[in-house]
Amino acid sequence: MNKFIATFDGFNFSKTNCEFAVAFAKAEKAHLTGVFLDDKTYTSYKIYDLVIEEGVSEHKLKKLKQEDQEIRINTSKNFEEICVDAKIEYNIHHDQEIAVQELLHESIFADLLFINKDEKFVHHEEKFPSRFIKDVLSHAQCPVVITPETFVTTEKIIFLYDGEPNAVYAIRMFSYLLSSLHSLPVEILMVKKMEENLHLPDHKLLKEFLKRHFNNTTYTVLRGIPEVEIVSHLKFEKKNFITVLGAYRRTMVSRWFQSSMADALIKNFNMPVFIAHNK
Q1: Residue partners of 122: CB distance under 8 A and separation at least 6
Q2: What is the pLDDT of residue 250?
């Protein structure tokens, strides 16, 4: 049995992230852990809410902390109710240290992590995607599914391929972790430079591998700038899809699957994105 984890903000529960995590956990018969990041430095109140004429009110601070605790507990109950209704195995963690550090530590002991694209764990506005999301994608120790604003049922799989090991690793991890989707149509999507031919690198080995995992695979090779061509191509896709890609880290392992590619997919489509890097 695989262990999936889904992370939540106790003050702003993402029902969509919960729906995706529960749906996939149920389909895969996986255990789901709800990770509620109750960072002690992240509160619903501001410091000036504590100030009275005599200074900082300890009584008010105690009251506000208690209210925050009640909000977080009630939020985790929402997750519990959804899991019970879905009849899946689950448990709940309330992690109270620095949010991103806690989540990255949890990811060491998980097979797959679900997180909503809008999570940020700060109250002020941030440029999309948030620093929190970027840190998680760059340093998570397991594959990550970025969930969109609303829940959709997956009808097609899009594998982004550049001929590098990381792209194949992402395909492999997806096939292992989400085997319930093997019967869905699959599209291998590659973008090459304008001067390059349309030959698919290692096409015989790739097709041999995919044939062992998926029943219905097509291949598309485009020319141009990946971030532009892939987004343009996917805008014409009529089925609800999940996109699968390799490294988010800025390394030499993958030629073009960098943060800008993942960011473009997350920003432009109300569809989940599966990201894995081969460490």
Answers
A1: 42, 130, 132
A2: 46
